[in-house]
Each structure stands twice: as C-alpha cells, then as structure tokens.
Design goal:
The chain is mainly α and 351 residues long. The protein has helices spanning 10-15, 20-29, 42-58, 68-85, 88-106, 111-120, 141-146, 172-191, 201-217, 220-224, 237-248, 254-266, 271-277, 286-296, 311-316, 333-350; strands at residues 125-127, 137-140, 163-164, 167-170.
C-alpha cells in the first residue's frame, strides 16, 4: 500500500510508531482485533509480543530490521497486548520502554527532523538562529513545564533555565529527552481504556504469558505494587535497624545503604524524602546522594528501579538483624512488608 504525501517516510513511521501519520496509516489498513487470530498475522503478533517482553526485560524496545509493515503494525498490537494484561506495571513499563528507545533515536536526528516530530505533538518549538546563545532550540515554557513534571534533576527546574520571551533554550539532546516524555505520556493514555474490548483467545493467551514473564523477572511484589502510605510498623527487623541508623546518622555499609534506599523507594517513599534521610551523615554529599538515590529509584540511568537484596544476601553481609517469626516464612524484605501490611489492613477492616 502506498503512503500519501507525508513529512515522514515509511521507515520513519516504523521508527516512530507513535506519530499521528503512523496512526493514520494503520487506520487505512483497517486492522481489527479479531484479525490477530488469522495465520497471516502471526509475524505481526510475534513482533508485538517481543516488543512488550523487551520492555519488561530491558526497559527498552529494540529497533530491528523487520519488514517495515510488521514493525509499524506491531506497535498498536503491542498496545493491545499490554492492555489485555490489565496490569498497570506492564503498561507503564511498556510506555517507558518505547519512550526510551524514541529518545535514543531522536537525539541523533538532524534539527529539522526533531522540529517536525515536535510539531506532530503540537509543540511550539523553534530552531535557535542566535549564534551567540549555545542552544539549538527554543521551546515555549508551557510545553517545557508539561514535560518536566517527572524529571527531578535541577537542570529541569524552570528557574535554572535560560528563558527569553516565554521560550526556554534547549540543546538537541535535551529536546529529545523532553520529546520522549511526551511520547511516554501519549502511550500511557492509549493504554488506559475505560472499557476493555473482547479480546480473541490468542491475545488472552499471550497476555497471560507476558504476565507470567513479568512475575518471574520482576517479582510479584513489584508487579502488584504497595499501599500509597509508607507503614514503618510493617518494616522487617533488618530494615527497622537500618532506618534507625540512617535517621541517627550512624554509619551504614554500602550494602546497608543500598538495602534501605531500594526498600524505601519500592514501598512508596519519594526519592526526595530518602535523600533527606541521609543529611545527618558526616560524609553527606547532596549531589552524589541525590544521584545515587534517583538511580536506584529508576529516575536516572537505565530508569530501572532496583529492588533490595534477598534475605540470604543480607545475612551474608551481616545486615539481617533480630529476625522474628515472620522472617522464617519469607525470603525477601518486600515480601515481609507486603504480608505485614496486608495483615494490618485485615485487622483495620475487622475493627
């Protein structure tokens, strides 16, 4: 099928499947959910499954040399598979992975191509022609603010930016980074359907396999999430001891620091509050501590949130302290916390 005149070539639509042009192209093909049961669509379904699995395993979706139509069509099918899992972790993970790969692609694009992609989202972005200002783009502050909500680095604070006539100056890399946030948000919206369609058995089967993979590789606790309120009384003894040490400024080993940080961000404490806990340490360094905490929380680097070491590892490093009866039934600090919070919830509901 021939594409109509467009700003993007077919290989661009395969590389950036979230574009409006790509959506229009797929609509013209009139692909339906029930079509996925047909053998002729097997390669598309397999690639769609691969996209979601890559997101789970690597927090990234590769750009392989598939047939361009397979690559283009596998994106909406992957969206369908992620929706069919009915799991918020998988859906957010998939949106993040597609956004990360888009960033990796866009940061090497010429300025003119980045400008066209930005216009696709309705951004007010311009190329900076002022040779005296070492930035390649100017972005309207409203677009800047909307896409820096989840970015914690100080450089994304508006007060730390060069601002002129309502425009924020950006490097090409920074522009690609903010565009990736736009991509993540757009995909997350597509993944949140108020009413689920009736999926064919094949789609349900693959969705179940994806959920199983997620549980095996990520862990049930991470998959299911935790209550919004951090409950200190549900901390396992080892974490309680580490928490007492950190709040009193006592020395912690490297393993101890990693264990308490990864535990707290996984049970819902914000990276900002975790950073504050370390301020009493004699070797406290604001910049280094913030970087390490945000990296563990999945807000920097690979953007993969780390989980605490297993109980066996904590015992090996002498971090397991005063284990109680519940400790004998679990193998991970997060499993202890989940059991304790669920028990507390049941007691409250009975009261």
């Amino acid at each position: 099928m021939q594409l109509a005149t467009t700003k993007f070539a077919k290989n661009d639509l395969a590389k950036y499947p979230f574009l409006k042009e790509t959506t229009e192209y797929v609509k013209r093909l009139d692909l339906k959910i029930e079509d996925m049961a047909n053998p002729e669509f097997t390669s598309i379904l397999e690639r769609a499954k691969e996209r979601v699995e890559e997101a789970i395993l690597y927090a990234l979706v590769s750009r392989k040399s598939h047939n361009e139509d397979i690559e283009i069509l596998s994106f909406p099918v992957a969206i369908m598979l992620a929706v069919a899992t009915e799991n918020s972790f998988i859906k957010k993970r998939y949106a993040l992975a597609e956004a990360k790969q888009a960033y990796n692609d866009m940061k090497f694009e010429p300025k003119e191509r980045i400008l066209i992609i930005a216009q696709n989202f309705g951004w007010k972005l311009e190329i900076n022609d002022n040779v005296g200002i070492p930035y390649e783009f100017m972005l309207h502050f409203a677009d800047f603010l909307r896409n820096t909500t989840h970015l914690r680095e100080k450089k994304w604070k508006l007060v730390n930016r060069l601002l002129s006539n309502g425009n924020v100056y950006l490097t090409r890399n920074e522009t690609a980074r903010l565009l990736s946030e736009e991509v993540r948000g757009q995909i997350e919206k597509r993944l949140e359907l108020k009413e689920l369609p009736k999926f064919p058995p094949k789609i349900i089967e693959i969705a179940e396999a994806i959920k199983k993979l997620s549980t095996e590789k990520i862990g049930r606790d991470e998959m299911e999430g935790f209550p919004k309120i951090v409950t200190q009384t549900a901390f396992p003894p080892c974490i309680t001891a580490l928490y007492q040490s950190i709040t009193s400024g006592r020395h912690l080993s490297h393993v101890g620091r990693f264990a308490i940080t990864s535990f707290l961000v996984n049970v819902g404490m914000s990276p900002e509050n975790v950073v504050d806990l370390f301020r009493g340490f004699s070797d406290y360094n604001e910049r280094l501590t913030r970087y390490q905490v945000e990296h563990i929380a999945g807000e920097r680097g690979s953007r993969t949130r780390y989980i605490p070491p297993k109980c066996a590892t904590l015992k090996t490093h002498g971090v397991c302290i005063n284990p109680d009866k519940l400790c004998q039934t679990i193998q991970h600090p997060l499993a202890y916390y989940r059991k304790k919070t669920l028990k507390t919830d049941r007691i409250i509901k009975k009261a």
